[in-house]
Amino acid sequence: MKESIKKRIEAVRRGEVPEKYSTEHAMLFPDEWGTPVALNTVLSENKDHNEELRFDKEDVLSVSGEQGIVNQIDFLGRSYAGESVAPYHVVETGDVVYTKSPLKENPYGIIKQNRGAPGIVSTLYAVYHCRTQITGQYLENYFCIDTYLNNYLKPLVKRGAKNDKKVNNEELLLGRIPLPSLQEQERINEIITQFDRMIELKQSKIDELNKLKQVFLLEMFPQKGQTIPKRRFPGFSTPWEQRKLGDITELKSASRVHKEEWTTSGVPFYRSSDVMSAINGTQNEKAFISEELYKKLSDVSGKLEAGDVLVTGGGSVGNPYIVPNNEPLYTKDADLLWIKNQGKFYPYFLYEFFFSPTFRNYLTSISHVGTIAHYTITQLSDTPICLPNFEEQKKVGEYFQSLDNLITLHQRELAEIGKYKKALMQLLLTGLVRVNA
């Protein structure tokens, strides 16, 4: 990185405005870009309606925070258009669309460019053409940064008596943003697009590995009524033994921990949400109980040990977690079912069994009718499972463990690319890094 760029970044970190830069309403930009421009000078409202029925219900578009403007049927599986699509707004390729629908990080709505085929959107959306001074892709890139988008929309969006959003399509263009030359906009777009392609390729690799795992889960565990899987490692030919989980080892439920017993430190305890967080690779806020409460409850329920498996019994049911070591850890309540290992199974084999189509089909067959399914300790005990000898369990478990580790590695790399892209976008869109030369 050039020394001049480092100095600018260091000045911003100190809360200073770098030399030859200016700020306006928390926006930083080079003096060379000139005064920030109102969007009504570079955008014009597209007031075309679908009155001649150029488009039908199959051409309705949705606006997504993650995927941008996409065909509604491709995105949601069906069209949600009204009886007539004649009043709908026409959206040409390159047009910019504003939707008032709030997202968690964007409470005032989002702004996206249509990079795909032309289509139509509900009259609840606002549609704009880009004039020659701006590219829609640059505008979308600028508003991809949550703080830029929220800071722009907040002064313009008013809330009505029913907490609905009141904003005139023309008034939405009264805000201002810094704008580099068209040449610099296009160069910034090119750089960001390169990262988008890297992210797309990495995500495709993850999807490919997940599909491969699903195939092996189907073929490496026997189907219902069978004792030999379709795919096996060399050297194994003995039929697997059909058992019930309750006949193999001890199953337990932990004593309930009430929320008022939570502490900010001490012994961590596990909830269903923690299991799902571990599976999804996300961060969940940890919960703790005191050492005294841990000892009291453990004297009743026993202690979790390395190789024990926890299974969610409420919410998203039937999802596993392997206890990694013998450090103090406690489960919360009946929402987590506890399978003691006792040397009766290879932990990762049992872990993967809970993802197999064999188990998932069984779970569907016993599901309770209602909005939230439950998987009880009795049902866990009655769950049928085909078990090979320990050596074959180990082979199967280690194979899936290595595959899961590879998927996790690619997911981490994807997250790192995303972080780097976001950091670079902030440097490019504030002009701290210049690309016009």
How are the SSEs placed, and which strands pair?
Layout: H1 3-13, E1 21-24, E2 27-30, E3 37-38, E4 43-45, E5 61-64, E6 68-71, H2 72-76, E7 89-91, E8 96-99, E9 110-113, E10 119-121, E11 126-130, H3 136-143, H4 146-153, E12 158-159, E13 165-166, E14 176-177, H5 182-219, E15 241-244, H6 245-248, E16 251-253, E17 267-270, H7 272-280, E18 288-289, H8 291-301, E19 309-312, E20 320-322, E21 330-331, E22 336-339, H9 347-353, H10 357-366, H11 377-382, E23 384-387, H12 390-429
Parallel strand pairs: 17-21
Antiparallel strand pairs: 1-2, 3-14, 4-11, 5-6, 7-10, 8-9, 8-11, 12-13, 15-23, 16-22, 17-18, 19-20, 19-22
Summarize the structure.
With 437 residues, this protein is of the alpha+beta class. It has helices at 3-13, 72-76, 136-143, 146-153, 182-219, 245-248, 272-280, 291-301, 347-353, 357-366, 377-382, 390-429, and strands at residues 21-24, 27-30, 37-38, 43-45, 61-64, 68-71, 89-91, 96-99, 110-113, 119-121, 126-130, 158-159, 165-166, 176-177, 241-244, 251-253, 267-270, 288-289, 309-312, 320-322, 330-331, 336-339, 384-387.
Report on this model:
By secondary structure, the protein is an alpha+beta fold. It is about 35% helix and about 15% strand. The protein has 12 helices and 23 strands. The strands form 9 sheets. A 4-stranded antiparallel beta sheet has the order 4-11-8-9. It has a 4-stranded antiparallel beta sheet with strand order 16-22-19-20, sandwiched between helices. A 3-stranded mixed beta sheet has the order 18-17-21. α9 (about 345-355) packs across α12 (about 390-430). The longest helix has about 40 residues, at about 390-430. It starts with a helix and ends in an 8-residue tail after the last helix. The mean pLDDT is about 90.
